[in-house]
Amino acid sequence: MTNPSKREQAIDRLSWHDGQFLEWRFAPGVKAKNRLEIEFALYKEQVHAPTRDRVVITCLGVRRFLASCDLPRLKEHAGPGNVIDGVHQEGVLRVWVTGGFLEVDAASFRVDITPSRGRKKPA
Fold first, then answer.
1. C-alpha–C-alpha distance, residues 40 and 61, integer Å
2. Residue 107: pLDDT band by 50, 70, 90 thresholds?
3. For the whole prediction, is pTM greater than 0.90?
4. Strands (E), 1-123
5. pLDDT value at position 45?
6. Strand, coil or helix: 52
């Protein structure tokens, strides 16, 4: 078993609650190597965080991807936050959103975080 990289370990430290699920992109096939990108806006810390950071999770070597989402409910709750929780365990990422869930079984996960530029969360 290999040691996870710092980028992969970052997935375990994300603060999911009240985040925003922004989009996902999936590229199956030989050249793409079954890659899935999921983009969120997440708070750095759950308590006293004034802004959300852009977080892109790149899932490489995707073996399985499941999603069930109520799109009108996701849109309705996007402002205050449509992400309920997330967990990464044994190569599987599970994210619960308003009206659904995402589940990705992949060989590895890379997390890229772009800090907010002071955009405040909506009141």
1. 20
2. very high
3. no
4. 15-27, 35-43, 52-69, 83-89, 92-97, 100-114
5. 79
6. strand
Return the structure tokens found at 82.
């449509």
Q: Tens of pLDDT along 16-64? A: 999 999 999 988 777 767 899 999 999 987 766 788 999 999 999 999 9
What is the layout of strands, in order, in the sheet containing 92-97?
15-27, 35-43, 52-69, 100-114, 92-97, 83-89
CA distance linking residue 21 with residue 46, whole number of Å: 16
Tokens of 120: 């405040």
Query: How many angstroms separate the CA atoms of 100 and 45, rounded?
Result: 24
Let me know if 88 is exposed, middle or buried by CB neighbors in 10 A (0-12, 13-18, 19+): buried
Which DSSP category does 77 fall into?
T
Q: Tell me the C-alpha distance between 15 and 1, whole Å.
A: 27
Q: In angstroms, rounded to a whole number, what is the distance separating the alpha carbons of residues 81 and 16?
A: 10
Do residues 116 and 49 lie in contact, with contact meaning Cβ atoms separated by under 8 Å?
no
- The pair of structure tokens assigned to 21 is 């699920």
